[in-house]
């Protein structure tokens, strides 16, 4: 019996061993299955169409916004609110050496210089802002070609005395005129300080521009610009542009009027032409500053003597072939100039040699009318 039980144990042990072996084999097979890698099918490359490039349209530059208080004579933004859309003032000023220095002239926006009797010259100074005109000395008499030019700006006209032979002409122009002889509104007087310094009486007359706006308003004169004068006096370059009119360098302009001369010398620091009279700096007697201009015009024209007193006849309206030069920013340009024939109310206009109106730099202007071939440019 004992022998039989031992055999059973042995068989049981073998069976157990066999079962364990099978379990081990089974586990081993499972492990191998887990380690088997499944190959992925090849990926198909999908091509995506690229969008066609969109052409960039350049932005249009913003339209330059002109300030409401633009000065119509200079293009600068310096008018007081009360002067926007209002008429300028033209003032006749003595310009012979014995009357130097003048005062109140530095503030002028445009100065015309034209010969009178004996080939001495006279100023007509224009002020765009009728509310800020200064005291001006020395005031002088009218010659017909000055209001013929001032009318093109729709300006009030200020003088002290006239050439009697033109009284009918001035009346026909229907000027809003203020004459020191009649001292309208108490606007005129004699500078006694200058008189005490030895100036001749004719060089002491002043116009008190500080009172002018009040007088004009109280007398009911028209202050609004005429409809056809509400644009700028000239065609201006852009607000922030400083353009050379050409490549023809010009740093000095020397004008021989006959009995006296004007010289304008370019100052690079201020980008202006500083004025001299007979070789001396022409200064404002109140400010002490030398007269300076962004733009210089020399307009050649016919000038002759018209009577025994030496009064001049001046061709003030020009023609298509009237010659001149525009000088600015260190350079000069040959131009033509004209107003409409026999039309005092028309604009003074400047053209290039192709007949196109030129644009000028913004700033003060000096305009000389002179005999042909009596000006040098360096």
TrEMBL record:
Domain of life of the native organism:
Bacteria
Q: Which PROSITE patterns match?
A: PROKAR_LIPOPROTEIN (PS51257)
The signal peptide here is 1-26
Q: Which SUPFAM superfamilies match?
A: YerB-like
The entry's keywords: Signal
**Where is the DUF3048 domain positioned along the sequence?**
73-220, 254-367
Q: What residue spans carry the region label Disordered?
A: 32-66
Composition skew (Basic and acidic residues), residue ranges: 32-53
Here the segments flagged for biased composition (Acidic residues) are 54-65
Query: Known InterPro entries for this protein?
Result: DUF3048_C, DUF3048_N, YerB-like_sf
Annotated protein name in UniProt: DUF3048 domain-containing protein
The organism of origin for this protein: Mediterraneibacter faecis
């Amino acid at each position: 019996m004992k022998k039989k039980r031992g055999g059973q144990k042995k068989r049981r042990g073998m069976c157990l061993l066999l079962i364990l072996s099978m379990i081990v084999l089974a586990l081993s097979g499972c492990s191998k299955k887990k380690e088997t890698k499944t190959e992925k099918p090849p990926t198909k490359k999908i091509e995506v169409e690229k969008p066609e490039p969109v052409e960039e349209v350049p932005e249009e530059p913003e339209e330059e916004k002109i300030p409401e208080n633009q000065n119509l004579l200079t293009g600068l933004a310096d008018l007081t609110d009360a002067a926007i859309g209002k008429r300028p003032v033209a003032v006749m000023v003595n310009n012979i050496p014995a009357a130097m220095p003048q005062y109140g002239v530095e503030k002028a926006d445009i100065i015309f210089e034209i010969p009178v009797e004996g080939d001495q010259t006279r100023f007509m100074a224009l002020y765009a802002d009728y509310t800020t005109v200064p005291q001006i000395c020395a005031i002088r008499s009218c010659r017909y070609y000055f209001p013929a030019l001032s009318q093109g700006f729709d300006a009030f006209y200020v003088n002290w005395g006239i050439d009697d032979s033109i009284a009918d002409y001035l009346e026909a122009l229907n000027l809003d005129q203020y004459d020191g002889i009649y001292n309208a509104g108490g606007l005129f007087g004699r500078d006694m300080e200058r008189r005490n310094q030895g100036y001749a009486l004719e060089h002491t007359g002043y116009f008190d521009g500080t009172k002018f706006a009040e007088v004009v308003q109280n007398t009911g004169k028209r202050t609004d610009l005429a409809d056809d004068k509400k644009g700028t006096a000239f065609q201006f370059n852009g607000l922030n542009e400083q353009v050379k009119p050409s490549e023809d360098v010009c740093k000095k302009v020397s004008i021989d009027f006959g009995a006296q001369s004007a010289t304008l010398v370019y100052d690079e620091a201020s980008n202006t032409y500083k004025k001299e009279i007979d070789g001396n700096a022409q200064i404002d007697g109140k400010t002490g500053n030398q007269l300076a201009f962004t733009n210089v015009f020399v307009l050649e024209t016919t000038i002759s003597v018209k009577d025994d007193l030496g009064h001049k006849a001046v061709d003030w309206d020009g023609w298509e072939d009237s010659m001149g030069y525009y000088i600015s920013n260190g350079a000069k340009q040959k131009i033509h100039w004209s107003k409409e024939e026999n039309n005092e109310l028309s604009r003074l206009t400047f053209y290039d040699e192709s007949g196109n109106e030129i644009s000028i730099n913004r700033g003060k202007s000096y305009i000389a009318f002179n005999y042909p071939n009596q000006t040098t440019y360096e």
